């Protein structure tokens, strides 16, 4: 018998109860959890193909050792959902919780990590400050005690952190949403959103007009473009974020390593590739091309931690788009100005780790019409209230 499709192609219906713009982990997870709540008439609209955007252009690091109580609770909810995701979706998403180390190279860095460790522990998160000798035991191949421009003084150790197969997560959520009754529409670009009398009434696409009373903007890179269609300004800037992978090596790196001073993070995939990224580019752009400057800088900082990698070949590099907010936290929930318009945007460099929690809570928000308590700190109106959720110190790569 021929293998069944992961998700099916559908003709675009004239109307849907919910239209989700963006076929990445956030949009697909929201659709999946909506079907679990009994909402079936859902369209997921993706301008390219499922997982084309940020969900396919990241380093798939999962963790919850953030800085603020609001952020810690939210990302811990996501980690717990990820831990059950393979069972819930009946699909191997290859989640490997082999630990996450954030390095400190100076006294100020140590103080910051100690504060984060205490806050994490008060919130029930497995996270603690460790010294260089234990760092060397956990990662024997790292240059902990050798000559360094920025000596390693301590690290925040977060055992539940790890990596996941990002395309497996996207495919599994798409399949789950499809099986629940949602329609996945690829190559479907949104051109306009109709909002007569301050309420959503229809979405206009390159394939036709769709009547709907609820729209969720779950895009990355183009969040402000979609919100402009309903005259909702967003406090964010779009920057490229680059990463690269090496040739495959025998397994030797069994933790995620992050250094905010060196602006580098590295892990090893199940296929043996070293996956490494850096900080976001300091200019505004929608470019998805890698640059030589990034390749040179990333390789230089990587060799400071692992000098023996000098002759390892880089296979490929890429860029994704990051919507950065002033407080480095996302924007989620309904907007006050337009009835039926919801957003889950501004995910910066940490969107993939948040996908399950975002989808789970946004589905509750849309289905009930009430904002879950865990989402309240992340409403767009927080900027007007001057109640920011400052996570810059926990971003680790400075953005």
Strand content: 15-25%
As a percent range, the share of helical residues equals 25-40%
> What is the residue-averaged pLDDT?
95
Biggest sheet statistics: 8 strands, mixed
Broad structural category: alpha/beta
CATH architecture of the largest domain: 3-Layer(bba) Sandwich
Rg from Cα: 21 Å
Report how far the terminal alpha carbons are from each other. 49 Å
CATH topology of the largest domain: FAD/NAD(P)-binding domain
In the CATH hierarchy, what is the class of the largest domain? Answer: Alpha Beta
Order of helices and strands: EHEEHEHEHEEHEEEEEHEEEEHEEEHH
Structure, explained:
With 399 residues, this protein is α/β, with parallel strands linked by helices. It has two domains: 18-58 and 166-236 and 327-394, FAD/NAD(P)-binding domain; 96-160 and 237-324, D-Amino Acid Oxidase, Chain A, domain 2 (2-Layer Sandwich), CATH 3.30.9.10. The protein is built from nine helices and 19 strands. The strands form four sheets. It has an eight-stranded mixed β-sheet with strand order 5-6-4-14-15-16-13-17. Strand 15 and strand 16 (273-277) form a beta hairpin. Helix 1 (25-36) runs parallel beside helix 5 (166-179), helix 1 runs parallel beside helix 8 and helix 2 packs across helix 8. The longest helix has 21 residues, at 69-89. It is globular, with a radius of gyration of 21 Å. The N and C termini lie far apart (49 Å). The relative contact order is 0.20. The mean pLDDT is 95.
Brief sketch in words of this structure:
The chain is an alpha/beta fold. The protein is 28% helix and 23% strand. The chain has nine helices and 19 strands.
